[in-house]
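As agreed, record passed on underneath.
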Amino acid sequence: MNAFAPFNSEETREMQTPITFFHAPFSRSGVTRAMLEELAEPYDLVALDLERDEQRSAEYLSINPMGKVPAIRHQGALITEQPAILMHLADLHPERHLAPLIGDPLRGEYLRWMVFYGSCFEPAITDRSQNRPPVPQRTSGYGDYDSVMSTLAEQLERGPWLLGEAFSAADVLWGGALNWALMGRLVPDWPVFRHYSEQVMSRPAIRRAFALDRALADDQRQQREALAA
């Protein structure tokens, strides 16, 4: 479909089909919940309790064999991997202006940073957290930890958002990632990281997503206690 063409009524009805969202509170899928709240669109929530290993149940493994959240099901398709989910959601709702359209000069930069998260940032902080010895830069998919951090910081210094003046799905992703990484001391406590993370996390929709997760986590805790009684 041409990104600049008007949507016909059939396409609009299909896009309005509720999304089924597989989620666990205070996990990586919190970023997807924040994105859904930013979109202010209805979704069907399937909550998993990680403390009870529900993500490893046969039922859920039949949905996502990786046993990971987040995952969404939409129009018969299963989508996993956080950046892919956020890109899909943003493209479903161009009227929310959370992603540059195809043809926009910022589209390539947007895709770069959505992919950079999984291809460079996550493996870099995982290796660092596990105290794995660095491998030669030329053989490492992300180069080295310091390069990843400095490259991200340089981009954020341009501000106020990752792509400049416009808030996007990339900010939902990176704000959540840096908030989590700063709490876990997985990234340097640089002012640019902290300011950016606080700016993203202060958005009403993202605060609402965290409040919903706190309530969900309390409900799951109470259910576990009742079962143990």
In short: The longest strand covers residues 19-23. Residues 14 and 75 are 7 Å apart (CA to CA).
